[in-house]
Amino acid sequence: MFIILCLSIVYAQKMHDRQNALHKSSDSLLRDDISSSSVMQKGKWTNTIHTERKEDEFINPRPFIDRYNLVDIRQDGNPLDSVGGRIYQELMERESADLAKIYDSTGDTPEHTAKLLGLKRSAILGRYNPQAAGQSPEQKNSWAIPYFKNIHYRYYNGDGKEIQESSNVKDILAMASVYTYQHNYLDEERFRAIVNELYTKSHSYSLSIGPVYYDQGCIHKDAKEEMLAEEAANTDAPPGGETKASEESKAESTSEKSSETATESKANQDTKATKESKQAQESKQTQETKSNQENSQKSTAGEAGESSSESKALPEQTEKSSENKENSASQNAELSASNLPKESKVTKETTGTKAEQKAGSIQDQKNLPKNYCPGHVDLTIKITVVGFDDENGLRNIQLDSIKDLEEQDQKPGSRWHGWNDYTIAAVKRLKEQDWFKDYGLSISSVEKKSPLTEEEISSYMKDLPKDLSEERKALIHFALSSVGKVPYFYGGKAGVKGLEGNHFGATISSSDYKGRNRKGLDCSGFVQWAYWSSVDRSLDFASSTQELIGKGQKIKRSELKAGDLIIQPSGESHVVVFIKWTKDGKMLAVHENGTAGNISVDEVQANYPYYRSILP
């Protein structure tokens, strides 16, 4: 009887346990699973979503070391609403914001950038430029070059090797995912701390200004000529965005000097003709011409030496490299002063109305030699992005956010054995996955730029000048109405006017160079589409910023009106549509914003070399 009673009790207990197992929550199963592992985790979970799940609901799919597991911790079907999706979005937005700051710094003036770098003013002085505001032909110190001609972006990895433009967001997230999987993959607080520290310590950038150089003449060029010259420069540019201007400065400077010497000789001849006999004048002219030619040869040799030095300079040239060339810049300034045509020189006693002074400036420009160049200067931006695969990569970064786990990780029973072949392979598999296909995450999926309300659009329109042409108003209104509605896509062009029919925002099979896979426009595509849609001007269906240089009228920065274009064709090429000046001297512009991922209205410096007026 005792045996029968024991068997009955055992059977009843088993039935009771089986019934309880059917109602056991997934949280308790996870706790049992983790408790049975070799390492017990200290502290409580920071994620509370699991305690709110219904009973008998299990995580699907189960966590794996080579899966971005936090994207599965969500309450609905949107990947961006998951824990992993939100962290992904935050990191992408942080990267975009940082790049936006870097790109906006390229719109600053060479003078202000030189001050930030601690360079002397002589490093950015060229020749007298009648098109630049505030320059006087008799004040050499006022001949600051007004904008950067070319902007060179150089990306480097953690080993100092030059690479293509790169993002390490997936590397960072994959690395943090593998590390936390070996500890507690549900610890969102730890995951965020690791991700943010890795990002901060793996990104840096620096600026450097190259030496002043001269081309074959740019004062008298119209828009079409500038476009052709820019295309020729970019066609012959070596990989990395460098133009041939610096490399050819020797030959170009030689031709400039010869022409300028001839101009000066002719001016001297006319002046002395009234004082000396023809025979004496010819004798003296011969001697002066010989002397000028000798000086020209010496000056050309000096400039040739500078060009040679620049062509051999490493991309990571520092501020000191520019400081070492300041003497050469000063010599160029002195030389250019003597080569200015006498008709363009203004004495201190010069007076007159603003109209007369403007006419004088135009006359100055006409009297300059056709191949006259006031000088150019380039900006180089070195951006370092450390990746996981670099020898001095992400896994070599010492993290403060995991120091408290170091003692625990040294214990024999720990699951974490450092970055060995197993964990490294897991990171590589994870970061090489198609995150859009596997998790629904892409650069396009984090693009968030809200369209403007009618009230906001009306506010911008009220700030426009009352005498602004109707065409310009129509362009600005259309551009503002497009904000937040057209994703950025590199190389994207419109097929038809307006929003309908272009299928902006639709997912496309081939992504652009940065991983965007939503149908949209790039910056030049937006400008062409906006003009075409609003005022029926197709701009000959210009397909690049270089082609936009040849459109409309060439204007000065001070002459900008709403609807005009400001263009930077080199480096991170860009074009914006001017709206108005802000109180702090910046531009308010509308543009297809690659860093924001959509059309946006922003305050920008945009001190670009080309300003174009297309509408009346």
List keywords for this structure.
616 residues; alpha+beta; six-stranded antiparallel sheet; four-stranded mixed sheet; 41% helix
Provide an overview of this structure.
The protein has 616 residues and is of the alpha+beta class. It has 19 helices and 10 strands. The protein has helices at residues 2-22, 26-35, 83-105, 110-117, 169-181, 188-201, 223-235, 249-272, 278-312, 319-323, 326-339, 354-367, 406-409, 421-431, 435-439, 454-462, 470-481, 523-535, 545-549; strands at 151-156, 162-163, 203-209, 379-385, 553-554, 565-568, 574-581, 587-593, 598-604, 610-613. The strands form 2 sheets. A 6-stranded antiparallel sheet has the order 5-10-6-7-8-9. A 4-stranded mixed sheet has the order 2-1-4-3. A hairpin with a 5-residue loop joins strand 6 and strand 7. Helix 5 packs antiparallel against helix 6 (188-201), helix 5 (169-181) crosses helix 14 and helix 17 (470-481) crosses helix 18. The longest helix is centred in the middle third of the chain and has 35 residues, at 278-312. The chain starts with a helix and ends with a strand. The model is unreliable at 21-51, 53-59 and 237-360 (pLDDT under 50).
Overall SS class: alpha+beta
Query: Sheet bearing the most strands, described?
Result: 6 strands, antiparallel
CA-to-CA gap between the ends? 110 Å
The residue ranges in which pLDDT falls below 50 over 5 or more consecutive positions are: 21-51, 53-59, 237-360
Instruction: Name the overall outline.
Output: elongated
Helix content: 40-55%
Structure summary, number of beta strands: 10
Mean pLDDT: 77
